[in-house]
Here is the input.
Amino acid sequence: AQKVTQAQTEISVVEKEDVTLDCVYETRDTTYYLFWYKQPPSGELVFLIRRNSFDEQNEISGRYSWNFQKSTSSFNFTITASQVVDSAVYFCALSVAGETSGSRLTFGEGTQLTVNP
Amino acid sequence: SAVISQKPSRDICQRGTSLTIQCQVDSQVTMMFWYRQQPGQSLTLIATANQGSEATYESGFVIDKFPISRPNLTFSTLTVSNMSPEDSSIYLCSVARRGSGILDEQYFGPGTRLTVT
Here is the structure.
């Protein structure tokens, strides 16, 4: 069975601060995919990134960066110079590639990020 | 990417009634899923909607309560039957493509906010 843990339930920062959201996952599969989604107050789920288990390169997209470390089973997400519009719930999710499990996502509990002006 | 629409966007229903939620995708996708997000909670997979066959349900979800149809590669419905206040949630449709053993990004619809009184 798969499990995703986001230990930080809520984080509050002041605008322009950097913030890192932690994600730790558990799976016995060797091929899997990790995701981050953003859920703003409006409720829709916005796809941010997908990373497969064979690609440990870190990724940067604008103010967002992701640090994938298989040795610690972590896939952390950093927002640099945070803005008020970054306020949302952020979900980390895991999917494994086995046929019996399909592509369904196992979500963490989410981290509520509040960026104050 | 994929553009996903859901109908209705929200509804208030009485206990004991049923509601059918529609999910439409703008292009053919391999896989379609239905998730539930209870208030303040993470997302939980209800079932995988299989085209032309019965849906595959996760533990704790049964076909009698959540019948699902998927007549083609771009459309699916989820019915919430004999509703109770505990069914008040956001219901989200999700789609993914899979080709050559590689999982494409998973995208989510805008969700249907259901309140049962």
About this structure: The interface with chain A takes residues 31, 33, 35, 41-45, 48, 56, 58, 90, 92, 94, 96, 98, 101-103, 105-108, 110-111, 113 of chain B (CB under 8 Å). The mean pLDDT of chain B is 91. Chain B has no helices and eleven strands. Residues 39 and 89 of chain B are 6 Å apart (CA to CA).
